[in-house]
Amino acid sequence: MRTSLNVPQEVLDEFDETWENEELESRSRAVREAIQEYIERHTSLEGIEGPAVAALAFDYEHTLVIGELHTVQHEFESIIWTTHHMHHGEWCLETIFCQGSAMRIRELVYQLRDFDAVGRVNVMFLQPEHDPIATST
């Protein structure tokens, strides 16, 4: 299927530079991969049920939100196994590794996304008891 998109020139230039540096075969291939990643990122959060393991990575402006973030992390301590924190000027990068119910992990993600001083929250889920090969056939 063919489609057309309106993309600002500077975004397209950066996109082209990125896929060319990664030595992908074409812009079409890069767009297909980007669309697939977008779908996975936005649908997997809602689609996972039961026990899960997750890594949450997020950035935030330290001085505006650190106290509130610590409060949220204490509220979710039953599913948070470990965290890793890195300072970069006024901004910080943090990774939280979780294990527990997917519903509870989602609640944590939504609370983190609620903060204005949090730039973005990326999530990667694993389901130890879920075999994607067995269920895809």
TrEMBL record:
Belongs to the transcriptional regulatory CopG/NikR family. Residues 1-41 form the Ribbon-helix-helix protein CopG domain. One of its GO terms (biological process) is regulation of DNA-templated transcription. The keyword Transcription applies. InterPro entries: Acetolactate_synth/TF_NikR_C, ACT-like_dom_sf, Arc_rbn_hlx_hlx, CopG, CopG/NikR_regulator, Ribbon_hlx_hlx, TF_NikR_Ni-bd_C. Residues 53-124 form the Transcription factor NikR nickel binding C-terminal domain. The keyword GTP-binding does not apply. This is CopG family ribbon-helix-helix protein. One of its GO terms (molecular function) is DNA binding. Keywords: DNA-binding, Plasmid, Transcription, Transcription regulation. It comes from the Archaea. It comes from Halococcus dombrowskii. Pfam families: NikR_C, RHH_1. The lineage of its organism: Archaea, Methanobacteriati, Methanobacteriota, Stenosarchaea group, Halobacteria.
